[in-house]
Amino acid sequence: MKIEGNLFLITGAASGLGYAVACQLVQNHASVVLIDINEEGLKKAVEQLGIQARYECMDITNELQAQQFFKQLKGQKISGLINCAGIAPAEKVLKKEDVHRLESFSRTLNINVIGSFNMIRFAAQAMSQNEVDTGGEKGIIINTASVAAYEGQIGQVAYAASKGAVVAMTLPLARELARDAIRVMTIAPGIMATPMLLNMPVEVQQALGDMVPFPKRLGQPEEFAKLAQHIIENTYLNGEVIRLDGAIRMAAK
Ligand SMILES: NC(=O)c1ccc[n+]([C@@H]2O[C@H](COP(=O)([O-])OP(=O)(O)OC[C@H]3O[C@@H](n4cnc5c(N)ncnc54)[C@H](O)[C@@H]3O)[C@@H](O)[C@H]2O)c1
Predict the structure, then answer these.
(1) Where does the Ketoreductase domain start and stop, copy by copy (predicted)?
(2) Helix (H) or strand (E) segment spanning residue 232
(3) Which of 22, 29, 141, 209 has the least CB density, counted as fewest CB within 10 Å?
């Protein structure tokens, strides 16, 4: 899929990995719609990105908001959806005097899985209406999982379950959407230097970086964005999950 001149939707784009993807695509002359619940962050991001960017403040888990958003986009050709919105809470199953809250478990699955899927279904519908481009494609969907899908740590039961579901959705989505010339890929990042991590004490960041075999540091959001760009441009990538993690395999805790 060509980037230049095409329109891409990016969720979670007010911050971190989503914002980095928005920058990368704008640098490559795409138009982007940044989607997030953080309106202040969206405004700042769009200001930085200039006229190729606009935003939609919405909750990706909200069925009606998503429906209305895609309705309002009708007539505009969407070439891709990059799902980066997500949360990463930590909670143990057995706490001192309590157990894991069911509410926080459902909330994590609701945002990371159902929210992503809510956007996927409408984006797929919109992209299926496109004419095929010169590469024979109508659209591309990229989701964000995590290495926690494979090596969830203690305290990550909800997060790991949610990212495992994102991994598991990849192949059936790619298989079904193949007939509509839409590819589906997932990136499973390791430890990335986004606000989520940069708010931690420097020693903790250092310790996390030291756990990575090579290179011994946190991943940069730009490295995620470059991979997203490659996935968009490489038509033969489909139905697969790519780890972006410097060979880290997370320990139990
Ligand atoms: N940073 C890491 O180390 C890392 C590692 C593996 C996976 N990931 C995944 O990458 C994705 C992006 O993470 P990040 O590090 O950029 O985090 P981040 O917190 O910087 O960005 C996530 C964005 O998602 C938005 N968001 C949350 N819930 C939403 C909702 N219901 N509707 C719309 N927007 C919503 C937030 O407002 C935020 O702007 C997440 O799915 C995260 O799980 C991150």
Answers:
(1) 6-190
(2) helix 221-233
(3) 29
